[in-house]
Amino acid sequence: MQDYHEFLGEVLISEAALQKRIRELGEEISRDYEGKKLLLVCILRGGVLFLTDLMRAIRVPHAIEFMAVSSYGVGGRESTGQVRITLDLNTDIADRDVILVEDIIDSGRTLSHVLELLSIRHPRSLKVCALLDKSERREVAVPVDYIGFQIPNKFVFGYGLDIDDYYRNLPFIGVVDLKRYHGSNSD
Length: 187
Ligand code: IMP
Ligand code: MG
Prior knowledge:
Elements: E1 8-13, H1 15-32, E2 38-44, H2 48-57, E3 62-71, E4 83-87, E5 97-105, H3 109-119, E6 125-133, E7 146-150, E8 156-157, E9 173-176
Parallel strand pairs: 2-3, 2-5, 5-6, 6-7
Antiparallel strand pairs: 1-9, 3-4, 8-9
Helix pairs in contact: 1-2
Magnesium ion (MG) binds near residues 43, 46 and 103.
GO molecular function, one term: nucleotide binding
GO biological process, one term: hypoxanthine metabolic process
Subcellular location: Cytoplasm
């Protein structure tokens, strides 16, 4: 495995900046849902670090649920537009106040599909909280209610986001220098 220092182009969002912004998002959500009970639905796997920090910043009572989706096709750096559920919720979301917790919105295809699938289950409300928004890449319009950071059109990793399934554990968001990245098969 390559050490990430070998292909880190730059640290785009530091650990401190991430944590500060997540506390602000938690405050905003806590104000908006005062007196209510929430259900946070995390989209695996990228959203998992964000979820656990966001939960600690939210003061209203909330349950958590997980869902996983995958895009068909090869490559892994572009979503193909065809999204299927690989892990569904264990909870009935009818009449619940739901917030979807996502790592990043890129083309918007994944989110758009997930929103469609969840809205037909009649939640009382359904909002979206995404840590990162690469809005330049948007192909499908999606409503996003809470956004951590707008980012440029660059491939990023860390804090839940992977390159070929690794490096999710890093506490910051880095930009990959693809010229210096050799792929996970070349140890
Ligand atoms: P979308 O369907 O194009 O919006 O793709 C969203 C999904 O693609 C995210 O949930 C991520 O898993 C993945 N993704 C998009 N951009 C990046 C990136 O820069 N780094 C890592 N994963 C990404
Ligand atoms: Mg994801």
